[in-house]
Amino acid sequence: MKTDTFGREMPTENKKTDFTSKLKTQNSALGLQSSPFRDAGQVADLSAEIRELTAVTERNWKIMEICGTHTMSIHRHGLKSLLPPQIELLSGPGCPVCVTPTRLVDKALALAAAPGICFCVYGDMMNVPGSKGGLREAMVRGADVRIVNSPLDALALARRLSHKTVVFWGIGFETTAPATAAVIKMAAESALKNF
Asked: Are 32 and 38 in contact (CB under 8 A)?
């Protein structure tokens, strides 16, 4: 029997085979298609490799999954059970899409529906539901909602649509905050009154 530096039994070929057949059975029962990401043999091999690497490092690892969708997938597919005890998965704060409260989405919907507003947002917020639907439904009902790729796109719209107030809903990680702040500064410096 092969053990790691902590004295725990390492997976053997038989255990790998048992795991592989169990995973194939589960995937089949769930109607999951075969793909490189669901190949039970590859998963077992990767799990064994992770166990071997963590045994060599002789330390504990904490890995944070940021997005709620990642957390759900990890739990749904039982990935935590494939990791050695030295690896602890931590649920992070959630991405802005996952953690935006319904009340804020409702405020955004009210603002987007107001006359004279051009409401700009990153595309991932379009389907985030409020208590009465999301921005996609607001757009269908006639709100001027625009998907932008950066705050600069919203600023350009404000320069073109001088008859409207352009609102950029700056939902994002801390990595998006500097660009949003820079655009606000640019709008102020150019005396743009509708942004």
From this structure: yes
* Segments of the chain with pLDDT less than 50: 4-6, 16
**Given this model, what pLDDT does residue 26 score?**
60
- Residue type at 171 in one-letter notation: I
DSSP per-residue string spanning the chain: --B-TTSPBPPPHHHHHHHHHHHHHHHHHTTPPP-GGG-HHHHHHHHHHHHHHHHHHTS-EEEEE-SHHHHHHHHHTTGGGGS-TTEEEEE-S--HHHH--HHHHHHHHHHHHSTTEEEEE-GGGTT--BBTB-HHHHHHTT-EEEE-SSHHHHHHHHHH-TTSEEEEE----TTTHHHHHHHHHHHHHTT-S--
The distance of Cα 83 from the centroid of its chain, to the nearest Å, equals 21
One-letter amino acid at 80 equals: K
- How far is the C-alpha of 32 from the C-alpha of 30, rounded, in Å? 5
Longest dimension (CA), the chain: 76
pLDDT at 35: 61
Q: What angle do CA 114, 144, 157 make, to 5 degrees?
A: 110
Give the contacts of 18 (CB within 8 A, at least 6 positions apart).
Answer: none
Please state the length of the chain.
195
